[in-house]
Amino acid sequence: MACILVTLRLGLHDLFSHRRLALVMALSIAIAFGMLAILEVYRTGVADKYTELAPDLLLVHESQTLGEFYGSRLSSQVGDWLSGMGFSMLIPEIHALTGTSARSAILLRGIDLGQYTRLESFSILEGRRLQPGDPPRQAMIGWRLARSRDLKVGDVISLRGRNFDILGIFQNGTYMDNQAWISLADAQALLGWGQDVSIYIIPDGCFLHEGQQLPNGISVSRKGASLKFVAAQLQPILDLLRIVVAALGIATALALTNTLWRLAWRRRRSLAILRTTGFPTFSLVGYLLAQAGGITLLGVFLGGLFTFLFIISVKFAFPSFTIVPRLEFQTAVSSLEWIGLLTLAGSLLPAWWLSRLNLAQLLHSE
């Protein structure tokens, strides 16, 4: 135990003597750790917000569209046909993307004021929710949309050139926090759709099933499937970034190995003397681990600080979509494990190399 403490103190002393070199290596580790952490928190955010499927609800929508977002349009005859089948619940809605540019785009949702609370759980942060009997041109908006547009209850929001009074600001915890909700009748009038809608929401386990293709280009899918498709489109980009981060990590481990080897080589005679006085071979590991640990701790701190500053200053937003980072315990543990592997690789390799050198030659070296 005393041998290990001595080599640890010697390693930290030598590391402090080469502060500039240690700082450069810590910055390299900080970049690798920061990139991994940023990738993981955004990957977790995508999985958390865009992959949840409703276990008991199905959507009837136009085929080859993302009906939960935009693109689907069904005639009222489809609703009459579904109603004739005797569904216990049949809720029409409109989902559309309004705006003339990516900056002005807003996800619009036209809701049945008598039934929409059966579909989503949300909390009102300010004002009140839409209710049956409300006059036209009233809206509820998600808190992320309110924050991005600097809106509050009592303000007006412009949708396709028409102003709607904001009655409430809600929080759902999903992509819906970017939406503007208005009554179904207002949405139909705003889009000029007459009695047409985007989707019909029906209960699962009745007459239709997930994946069924109906006549006239109509499909049945699970509620949330469109969101999962959006997340799947991002997966190839995330996989590519993982490869880049892995390559960066390997390069960092090799640089750490070279740095520790050079520091140990400058102390080769002292280390050889310690071994001849009874210090075991694995004491070399303690000497190098002290240096690798000091560099890694500083790198993790700087990388964590970089990650925090990046998350609060950079927003990944698409037309009315925001990728929200989410930090989970398992994500933090896996990132630290990855950095730990880099530290071990950077210290064990030069230690193994030094242990194989001839002691007599080391003692005579200058």
Please explain how this structure is put together.
With 366 residues, the protein is an alpha+beta fold. The protein is 51% helix and 18% strand. It has helices at 2-17, 19-50, 76-84, 143-149, 184-191, 225-266, 268-276, 283-313, 329-355, 359-364; strands spanning 57-62, 91-98, 106-111, 123-127, 138-142, 156-159, 162-171, 179-183, 199-203, 213-214, 218-222, 316-318, 321-323. Strands 1, 2, 3, 4, 5, 6, 7, 8, 9, 10 and 11 form an 11-stranded mixed beta sheet that branches. Strands 12-13 form a two-stranded antiparallel ribbon. α2 (19-50) runs antiparallel to α6 (225-266), α2 (19-50) runs antiparallel to α9 (329-355) and α6 (225-266) packs parallel to α9. The longest helix is centred in the last third of the chain and has 42 residues, at 225-266. It is elongated and about 90 Å long. The chain starts with a helix and ends with a helix. The model has no long low-confidence stretch (mean pLDDT 79).
